[in-house]
Amino acid sequence: MSKKKKIVLTVIAVLLIGVVIFMFIPKDRKSDKHMTVTVGDKTFAAVLYDNKTADELYSRLPLTLDMRELNGNEKYCDLDKSLPSKSSPAGHISKGDIKLFGDDCIVLFYDSFTSGYSYTNIGYIEDTDGLEEALGSGSVTMTFEAK
Fold first, then answer.
1. What would the 3-class secondary structure string for the chain be?
2. For the segment 50-100, what is each residue's pLDDT rounded down to a tens digit?
3. End-to-end CA gap in the chain
4. Which of 11, 39, 47, 109 is the most buried (most CB within 10 A)?
5. Does 21 score more than 70 pLDDT?
6. How confident is the prediction for the chain on average, in pLDDT?
7. What pTM was computed for the model?
């Protein structure tokens, strides 16, 4: 085998190893911070990610927000004060995801789907059983509290 072929194969192998490693690195690491999301008489436990957005939101808790319906899969509310953001294309959104749209719109998703929009990840509801029923089809008041 020629020296040039060995170099090319080595470069390809290094790139493939890098891709494999990247695939297994968690994109969002969980923090030790948790919160509850209460809608009516139903309370859901949520895990926050280890990022500046989640940290800043956590520092503002408790928050009671009037969340509006959008697209039959999410509730959202524009915040009075922006949060630090580092958005990226969502790709797949899971039921229970809590994300920031732009730098001042908190969103709670109650359905799973694929999206081309960009968000900053904040956290997620651990057990989504009953989430869709609790949120209903219209606007709701949600309380976010530190746990």
1. CCHHHHHHHHHHHHHHHHHHHHHHCCCCCEEEEEEEEEECCEEEEEEEECCHHHHHHHHCCCEEEEEEEECCCEEEEECCCCCCCCCEEEEEECCCEEEEECCCEEEEECCCEEEEEEEEEEEEECCCCCHHHHHCCCCEEEEEEEC
2. 999 999 999 999 999 999 999 999 999 999 999 999 998 988 999 999 999
3. 62
4. 109
5. no
6. 90
7. 0.80
